[in-house]
């Protein structure tokens, strides 16, 4: 597993305390000033763990010692990490790992592999029990790559690099020439792989993001329905129902202050953001019509499914903003497993126990209507703005299919008018929004200006709950 | 040179940027039409539009080259 140069890069000296790779320096930078208390000895094991606070919220944290064998993970260091997990699970507090490690210690042979495997097992057992965050500040290769990957959220600093095998091995095996950043830096992991949830411009900024996330998940707060300020979202939707727009202002407006968007550049056709609404942590999921028309596809369904399951595991209520023309059609999608990967989103919502509110802002069609936390999957409450349309497909597409003979029988000049008339009849028959209300699949039509209060009221009244499951990295 | 490719099968509805234009990240290059939606194709990085490879009315397949951007 070890692929990096792990010579001893420095030894004890007077300057050691100022070494930015000193794990105690890194842990102190993460935790509230003066709150750090070591829970493992300072030794040559390659890892250090501590308890401390983040904005007053108790957490456990650990960090590789990149000064010793490039932070490589051996038996003793892995014991320290497993101990940190034991403490976090016992205390029911979030655990944050700061990663800078070339992977398993080569000289220890299979002993180090066994030890790294024990860390993975501890992480998996803690999955869904306590929030797990990873901050990757340097190279994290082999076993040190899969460590963060098993956790709930991965934050990558500018110098962070994540890969299973490094550039040298890639080159010797496949002949591909690439540097560490191109292989496993911020660009590939933010846009292509989905390995990283949040990219930060520097190590201090990465630690700040991890602190924000630890507080959001570790201290979720209570919904204070009396303090809701309404925002009029009437101007958000473009006049033409075909026109794209960015959904992010709506997400931002619903939250008290800007939240932390996870995976902003990967599968951007769906937005997943953790933030606070009326004082309480919520997870917001929103189709973004600006990208791919807001269609669901294999990757966005998988991204959203993992987010739903993470929120459910930690009891974070969900707010689902729906504007989706359907699942993305195409050979690429089908062969890419849109059926298998799309099913994950259905499973995630149908399984979820947390309160979850749906708001259909503009359109909800086909299988994507079901997948976006529909009543059928167990939504706590379903709201719709007056502009909302829903159905198996758009009315014109439906009549073109259902009435194709009748349409073919008239001349081309007459056809558009007939199509309009048939579409209106079809609309009346299948009912659109009115029929959805009658069926009980939409509970209430909301004016955009009353949206915040209505959603907060549901969240305040809903019975708190959390799912009894782990958060497998889907 | 950055390539901008179609993410889905669509009709090219409108060309917005012209060759030689300077664009910022998030600027619209062309607007596609598919699923009864207008779908803007955006510049992922700032740059200068070197070439537009499609014309209005064209059908593009997933992965087809739409434009080239000079960094």
From TrEMBL, chain A:
Ranges where the CoA carboxyltransferase C-terminal domain occurs: 226-474
Domain of life: Bacteria
A single GO cellular-component term on record: acetyl-CoA carboxylase complex
Pfam families, A to Z: Carboxyl_trans
Transmembrane portions of the chain: none
GO molecular function, one term: propionyl-CoA carboxylase activity
Start and end residues of each CoA carboxyltransferase N-terminal domain: 1-229
Region (Disordered): 1-21
UniProt-listed InterPro entries: AccD/PCCB, AcCoA_carboxyl_beta, ClpP/crotonase-like_dom_sf, COA_CT_C, COA_CT_N
PANTHER family: PROPIONYL-COA CARBOXYLASE BETA CHAIN (PTHR43842), PROPIONYL-COA CARBOXYLASE BETA CHAIN, MITOCHONDRIAL (PTHR43842:SF2)
Name by which UniProt lists this protein: Propionyl-CoA carboxylase subunit beta
Species, as recorded: Spongiactinospora gelatinilytica
């Amino acid at each position: 597993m070890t692929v990096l140069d792990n010579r001893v890069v420095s030894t004890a000296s007077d300057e050691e305390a100022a070494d930015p790779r000193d794990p105690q320096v890194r842990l102190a930078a993460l935790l509230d000033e003066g709150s750090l208390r070591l829970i493992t000895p300072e030794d040559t094991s390659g890892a250090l763990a501590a308890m401390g606070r983040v904005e007053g919220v108790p957490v456990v944290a650990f960090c590789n010692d990149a000064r010793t064998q490039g932070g490589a993970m051996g038996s003793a260091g892995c014991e320290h990490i497993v101990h940190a997990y034991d403490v976090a699970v016992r205390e029911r507090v979030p655990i944050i790992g700061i990663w800078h490690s070339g992977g398993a210690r080569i000289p220890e042979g299979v002993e180090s592999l066994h030890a790294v495997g024990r860390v993975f097992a501890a992480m998996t057992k803690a999955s869904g029990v306590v929030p797990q965050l990873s901050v990757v500040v340097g190279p994290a290769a082999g076993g040190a790559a899969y460590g963060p990957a098993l956790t709930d959220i991965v934050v990558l600093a500018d110098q962070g690099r994540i890969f299973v095998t490094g550039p040298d091995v890639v080159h010797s095996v496949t002949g591909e020439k690439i540097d560490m950043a191109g292989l496993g830096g911020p660009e590939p992991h933010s846009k292509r792989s989905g390995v990283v949830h949040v990219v930060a411009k520097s190590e201090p900024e990465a630690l700040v993001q991890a602190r924000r996330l630890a507080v959001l998940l570790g201290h979720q707060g209570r919904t204070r329905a009396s303090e809701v300020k309404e925002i009029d979202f009437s101007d958000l939707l473009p006049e033409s129902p075909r026109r794209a727009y960015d959904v992010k202002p709506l997400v931002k407006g619903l939250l008290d202050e800007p939240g932390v968007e996870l995976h902003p550049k990967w599968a951007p056709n769906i937005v997943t953001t953790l933030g606070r609404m009326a004082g309480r942590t919520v997870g917001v999921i929103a189709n973004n019509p600006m990208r791919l028309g807001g269609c669901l596809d294999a990757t966005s369904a998988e991204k959203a499914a993992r987010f739903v399951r993470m929120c459910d595991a930690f009891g974070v209520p969900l707010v689902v903003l729906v504007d989706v023309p359907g699942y993305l059609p195409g050979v690429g999608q089908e062969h890419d497993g849109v059926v298998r990967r799309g099913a994950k989103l259905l499973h995630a919502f149908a399984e979820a126990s947390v309160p979850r509110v749906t708001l259909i802002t503009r359109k909800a069609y086909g299988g994507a209507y079901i997948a976006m936390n529909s009543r059928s999957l167990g939504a706590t409450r379903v709201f719709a703005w007056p502009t909302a349309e829903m159905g198996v497909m758009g009315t014109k597409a439906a009549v073109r299919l259902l009435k194709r003979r009748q349409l073919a029988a008239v001349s081309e000049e007459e056809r558009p008018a007939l199509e309009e008339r048939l579409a209106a009849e079809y609309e009346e028959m299948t009912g659109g929004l009115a029929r959805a209300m009658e069926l009980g699949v939409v509970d209430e039509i909301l004016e955009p200006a009353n949206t915040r209060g209505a959603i907060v009221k549901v969240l305040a009244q809903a019975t708190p709950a959390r799912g009894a499951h782990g958060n497998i990295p889907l | 040179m950055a390539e901008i490719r179609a993410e889905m099968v669509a009709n090219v509805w409108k060309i917005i940027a012209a060759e030689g234009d300077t664009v910022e990240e998030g600027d619209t290059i062309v607007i596609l039409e598919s699923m009864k939606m207008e779908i803007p194709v955006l510049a992922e990085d700032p740059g200068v539009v070197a070439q537009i490879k499609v014309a209005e009315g064209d059908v593009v397949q997933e992965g087809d080259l739409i434009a080239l951007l000079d960094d």
